[in-house]
C-alpha cells in the first residue's frame, strides 16, 4: 500500500483552514503551529522570510508596506493586472496564495508527523475558469498534488451530509465569507450529493461591511479635523482593524465605540447595531437578491428546502440571519461550524478522490476501514455531482444583424460531466479555415464573455457557403473542456488549457523563487 496523505484546504479571503480524515475515518481540523484552528490569510514579507498567519495579521498596522491580505480577490489576474513587489521581487496572486498554502501544508505535516502529498482545494462556486486555474497553480507552487478543486458550498454540504446520507433532503447553502459570496441548492439523495443551482458574487464579503465602517469613520474624522486618515497606509490599516473589531462586537452587542487617532488628532464615535444595519442595507439587499435568483434558477419554492446551511464567519451577524428568516421559515442546520465546514468537506472529497483512484489503478492507498466509512450500504462510494456555474459558448456570425453573437453550447447549471454537439454552416464560400472561438459567460455579446481558447480546422478549397461544421464540447468532472471540430472530413481538437496569470517559464521561475523563501 502506497503512503499518500491527502488533506482538504479551504483557501479563504480572510482565513484559511486545513482538515484531514483520521485513522477512525472521522474528519478533523488540523491546528496550525500557533495551535489555532483557522489561519489568517495574511502574508508578511521580512527579507527572505514570508510569515503567514496571526503574526502577519498583527503587524498590519506596524508594517503595512510589508503586508499582503485579501489576495483571493485578485486570483486569476495576470501579473500585469495585479502584482505586489517586495525586496525587488514581483509576486503574482498565485504565488502569494501559494505561500499561504505552503504554511498550511507545513503545519499539517508537523501535526500529523507525515508528509502531505495531496490536497483538494476549495473555490467559490461562482469562480470562473481563470480563477479556478490560478487556484490549482497556487497549489502546485506550494508543492501539492491538487487532486481536485471543489466548490465551497458543495464541500460544506458534504461536511453536513456525511452522517445524514440515509435522509433524502434538499439543502440551501448560504456561504458569506470575508471576500466572496455563494448561494447553492444541494440535493442529498441515495448517497449522492447533487448541486441543483448556484449563483454568487466573488467580490462581495465581510470586507465590504468593514469598508462601510472605515469610510464612515474617515468622513467623520475629515469633518472634525480637515484631514483624510485613509491617505496614510498605516492609519488605513489601523482603521481596517478597528472596523473589523467593531463589526464583530455589533454581532453580540447593541452598540460599540470606535476611537481612531491619526497625526496626533483623534475622534471617538459611537456606532449602534441599528445604524450599522442601516448603513449596510445595500449589501444585505445584494445577498437577498442572489438568494431569490438561485431559487428561481433551481425552479424551487422555499417549502421544498429541508435545511439552510450557514457557512462563513459573516453568517454570525444578526442582520444576515434576520434577512434569511425573512425569506423563509426553513430551519437552520445548527450542527455545522461556519468557519470549518468547507475545509472538512474538502478533506472528505480528498479521501473520495483517492478511493476513486484506487478503483481506477488497483493500487491500495488507504486502509479498508476508510472505504467502509465512505461507502453506501451497497458498497458504492458516496457520489458528488456538480453543475457548471457558467455557460460555455461559441462565437458565431449573425448574417441578418451583420454581427457576432455567442451561441451557448453547454448552459449554466448543466450537470457534469457534460457533452454537447451541434452543427453550424461556414459563413462564406471558399473559407480556408473554420476558426472556432470558445468563450465562457452568460451574455450573447462576445465582448462581455471571457475568451477560453480557439480551435481551428483547415478546409478543402471551393467549399460552398453553409457547408456543415460539426462542433463537440466535452466538459469533465474536473472542469477541463475538450473541443472537437469536424468539417468536410477534416478534424481538429483542443483541450482548453486553463488560463493562468503565469506562463510555463514563469511557473518554473516562481517555483524556484518561492523555494528561496523561508515560510513560517
Chart the SSEs and their pairings.
Elements: E1 6-10, E2 15-21, E3 27-29, E4 39-40, E5 43-46, E6 49-52, H1 54-58, E7 67-68, E8 84-86, E9 89-91, H2 93-112, E10 118-123, H3 129-141, E11 145-151, H4 152-161, E12 169-176, E13 181-189, E14 192-201, H5 206-225, H6 233-252, E15 255-262, E16 265-272, H7 273-279, H8 281-298, E17 307-311, H9 318-327, H10 341-361, H11 368-373, E18 383-385, E19 392-398, E20 403-410, E21 418-425, E22 433-440, E23 450-458, E24 468-475, E25 481-487, E26 490-495, H12 504-516, E27 518-519
Parallel strand pairs: 1-10, 6-27, 10-11, 12-17, 14-18
Antiparallel strand pairs: 1-2, 2-3, 2-4, 5-6, 5-7, 8-9, 12-13, 13-14, 15-16, 19-20, 19-22, 21-24, 22-23, 24-25, 25-26
Helix pairs in contact: 2-3, 4-10, 5-6
Amino acid at each position: 500500500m502506497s503512503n499518500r496523505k491527502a488533506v482538504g484546504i479551504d483557501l479563504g479571503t480572510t482565513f484559511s483552514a486545513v482538515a484531514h480524515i483520521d485513522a477512525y475515518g472521522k474528519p478533523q481540523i488540523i491546528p496550525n503551529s500557533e495551535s489555532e484552528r483557522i489561519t489568517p490569510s495574511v502574508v508578511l514579507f521580512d527579507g527572505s522570510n514570508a510569515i503567514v498567519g496571526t503574526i502577519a495579521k498583527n503587524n498590519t498596522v506596524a508594517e503595512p508596506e510589508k503586508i499582503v491580505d485579501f489576495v483571493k480577490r485578485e486570483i486569476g489576474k495576470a501579473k500585469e493586472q495585479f502584482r505586489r513587489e517586495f525586496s525587488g521581487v514581483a509576486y503574482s496572486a498565485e504565488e502569494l496564495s501559494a505561500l499561504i498554502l505552503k504554511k498550511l501544508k507545513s503545519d499539517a505535516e508537523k501535526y500529523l508527523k507525515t508528509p502531505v502529498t495531496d490536497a483538494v482545494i476549495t473555490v467559490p462556486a461562482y469562480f470562473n475558469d481563470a480563477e479556478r486555474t490560478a487556484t490549482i497553480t497556487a497549489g502546485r507552487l506550494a508543492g501539492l498534488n491538487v487532486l481536485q478543486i471543489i466548490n465551497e458550498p458543495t464541500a460544506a454540504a458534504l461536511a453536513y451530509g456525511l452522517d445524514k446520507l440515509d435522509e433524502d433532503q434538499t439543502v440551501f447553502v448560504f456561504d458569506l465569507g470575508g471576500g466572496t459570496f455563494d448561494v447553492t441548492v444541494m440535493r442529498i439523495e441515495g448517497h449522492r450529493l447533487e448541486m441543483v443551482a448556484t449563483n454568487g458574487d466573488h467580490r462581495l464579503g465581510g470586507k465590504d461591511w468593514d469598508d462601510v465602517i472605515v469610510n464612515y469613520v474617515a468622513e467623520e474624522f475629515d469633518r472634525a479635523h480637515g484631514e483624510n486618515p485613509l491617505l496614510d497606509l498605516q492609519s488605513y490599516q489601523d482603521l481596517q482593524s478597528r472596523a473589523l473589531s467593531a463589526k464583530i462586537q455589533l454581532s453580540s452587542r447593541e452598540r460599540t465605540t470606535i476611537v481612531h487617532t491619526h497625526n496626533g488628532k483623534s475622534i471617538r464615535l459611537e456606532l449602534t447595531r441599528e445604524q450599522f444595519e442601516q448603513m449596510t442595507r445595500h449589501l444585505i439587499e445584494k445577498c437577498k437578491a442572489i438568494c431569490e435568483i438561485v431559487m428561481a434558477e433551481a425552479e424551487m419554492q422555499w417549502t421544498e428546502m429541508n435545511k439552510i446551511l450557514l457557512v462563513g464567519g459573516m453568517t454570525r451577524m444578526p442582520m444576515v440571519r434576520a434577512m434569511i428568516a425573512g425569506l423563509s421559515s426553513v430551519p437552520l442546520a445548527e450542527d455545522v461550524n461556519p468557519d470549518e465546514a468547507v475545509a472538512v468537506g474538502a478533506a472528505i472529497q480528498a479521501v473520495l478522490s483517492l478511493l476513486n483512484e484506487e478503483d481506477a489503478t488497483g493500487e491500495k492507498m488507504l486502509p479498508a476501514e476508510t472505504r467502509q466509512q465512505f461507502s453506501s450500504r451497497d458498497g458504492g462510494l458516496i457520489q458528488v455531482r456538480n453543475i457548471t456555474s457558467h455557460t460555455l459558448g461559441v462565437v458565431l456570425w449573425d448574417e441578418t444583424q451583420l454581427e457576432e453573437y455567442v451561441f451557448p453550447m453547454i448552459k449554466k447549471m448543466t450537470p457534469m460531466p457534460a457533452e454537447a454537439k451541434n452543427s453550424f454552416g461556414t459563413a462564406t464560400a471558399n473559407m480556408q479555415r473554420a476558426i472556432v472561438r470558445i468563450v465562457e459567460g452568460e451574455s450573447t455579446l462576445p465582448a462581455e464573455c471571457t475568451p477560453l481558447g480557439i480551435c481551428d480546422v483547415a478546409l478543402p478549397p471551393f467549399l460552398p457557403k453553409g457547408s456543415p461544421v460539426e462542433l463537440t464540447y466535452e466538459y469533465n468532472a474536473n472542469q477541463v473542456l475538450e473541443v472537437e471540430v469536424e468539417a468536410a472530413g477534416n478534424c481538429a481538437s483542443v483541450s482548453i488549457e486553463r488560463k493562468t496569470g503565469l506562463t510555463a517559464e514563469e511557473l518554473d521561475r516562481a517555483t524556484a523563487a518561492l523555494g528561496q523563501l523561508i515560510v513560517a
